[in-house]
Amino acid sequence: QVQLVESGGGLVQAGGSLRLSCAASGRTFSRNVMGWFRQAPGSEREFVAAISGSGGVTDYADSVKGRFTIARDNAKNTVYLQMNSLKPEDTAVYYCAAAAGPRDSIYYSKYEYAYWGQGTQVTVSS
């Protein structure tokens, strides 16, 4: 069982930055693919970014490429999402998710992830 706890959300003006953190329990963290998803009111939960267990493979949704960076610290069982140049359309609840997988794999579909955090609200004002 993996438990995930997100933190770092808040209210920021357009153009600002936030860093989200996701702390994971368990001794298998380095074997988990980690992902960030977001869900705005009335919308489906959508992929934002993912990172492989080794940290060597990452990918992003087109809407955040060049602005967001995903990283992980396996010694601290933590994954991060650095969000720069935030836009009002980035406003959503952000969720951290974990999935078992081969060391250098990443997943894009929410259905691949078995474990989810409770979410953290990010609000970007214009």
List keywords for this structure.
single chain, 126 residues, mainly beta, seven-stranded mixed sheet, four-stranded antiparallel sheet, 11 strands
Task: Tell me about this structure.
With 126 residues, the chain is mainly beta. The chain has no helices and eleven strands. The chain has strands at residues 4-7, 10-13, 18-24, 32-39, 46-51, 58-60, 68-73, 78-83, 92-100, 115-116, 120-125. The strands form two sheets. Strands 2, 4, 5, 6, 9, 10 and 11 form a seven-stranded mixed β-sheet that branches. A four-stranded antiparallel β-sheet has the order 1-3-8-7, with no helix packed on it. Strand 7 and strand 8 form a beta hairpin. The protein is globular. The N and C termini lie far apart (40 Å).
Short synopsis of the structure:
With about 130 residues, the chain is mostly beta strands. It has strands at about 5, 10-15, 20-25, 30-40, 45-50, 60, 70-75, 80-85, 90-100, 115, 120-125. The termini are far apart.
Q: What is the share of helical residues? A: under 10%
Shape: globular
What is the strand tally? 11
What Rg is obtained from the alpha carbons, in whole angstroms?
Answer: 13 Å
Let me know the largest β-sheet: 7 strands, mixed
- Count of alpha/pi helices: 0
- Helix and strand pattern: EEEEEEEEEEE
The end-to-end span amounts to: 40 Å
In round numbers, the mean pLDDT is: 96
Which stretches are poorly predicted, pLDDT < 50 over at least 5 residues?
Answer: none
Estimated share of beta-strand residues: over 45%
- Name the structural class: mainly beta
